[in-house]
Amino acid sequence: MTKHFTALLVILLVAAQLKAQMEPLAGYWKTWFISSGKEHRLPPPPSYKNEVAEVIAIQKNLDSAGRQEILYWNAGAPGYRWSEMITKLWQTDTAFRGILSGMLVGVATYDATIVAWETKYAYNRPRPFKADKRIKALAVDPQSPSYPCEHSVAAGVATTIIGHFFPAMKDSANKLAQRVMTSRIAAGTAFPSDTRAGFELGKKIAELEIEKTKGYSPQGGWDGKVPQQPGLWNGKFAMFPTAGKGKPVVLESASQYRPGPPPDFAKEMEELKKFKPTFRSNANAYYWASQSDDVLGRKLFEHNLHLNAPRAARIYAYAAVATYDGFIACWDAKYAYWGIRPDQYDTTFKPVLIHTPPFPGYPSGHAMVGGVLAELYSYFFPGEKAYFDKRAKDGAESRFQGGIHFRSDNEVGLTLGRKVGKAIVERAKRDGVD
Length: 434
Description:
single chain; Vanadium-containing Chloroperoxidase, domain 2; 0% strand
């Protein structure tokens, strides 16, 4: 009896210790473009005793600007600020490199984080504020070992990918990375050697994954030919004409869920012309045409997952892959059918939204993204499914209200997005993370 009680007590103590730590088993989670976290484990860290004085000196000389840096970079998960940055970059880029870079930042940050967590719990190096009482914790206790620094990992990934795809931004990105690293030392959450090791790890994984995805970009250029048949899209400039030839990550092919051809738009054109815009419909149209609401970042904050670096990185990675695969699938259909836009179908029609996007309308990209993310976010935040479904519906309807899409463009886009989203969710269910 005593022996069984002792064994039970040991189990409970171990369980309690694991609970107090931050995802100690995350180093074994399934990765995307590397075989495992253990494969890239870092060598043992140097002694931190020689670095204690440096951290103390930095904190002693900390001014208000330095404290603001700590607050800024400590907000959200380690990849939060970089996710914001790469999203703005690729959404204003007219080349396929933009969408590919967005996917890579999400996936490589996750893969590098898994390596970091495998390394952290292999060596269990204490955080500076725990290693020496003279060092203050000026940020929330990350509840994980110090080596390597996870924020520096995300910085190493992002700066490497930004520098590769957007060379003009390389120096600026590297300067931001230095600010990240300095802020974590000043916060008392990382030793200088933790930040250096983290940055180099992130850089290494990013370089490996850039190389691994070289063949993902569409091969060969566009011949510049736009179909001349009546009833098809006839713009002067076609954006992303070869995007549908890109290689997806989860989908078997870009055309896996390709919808059937668009209908005759005659009845839908009449529906659009009879539609009477209201203040509410115009507001919805303009909101979704210009919105940059980071709903994922907000939900991670609301669910306190921003404090859990591996889980936040996992969700960011899935969102990046879902957006990337969905984009390829949607653009495959767009340039398979060259669906005409309303103001091209009837040149007397004036859309509420002044600028009609420079690519075919069928299916709607906005609706597709809404469908993809509604499926994905409902999986990660199941209690908010109704909220995500409404967002998808409102986003799709906004394109009709704005006069730049027929109703079937939006309906088919939503359906396509949901199919892609379900495929991504199935991958998440199989990755072994509960």
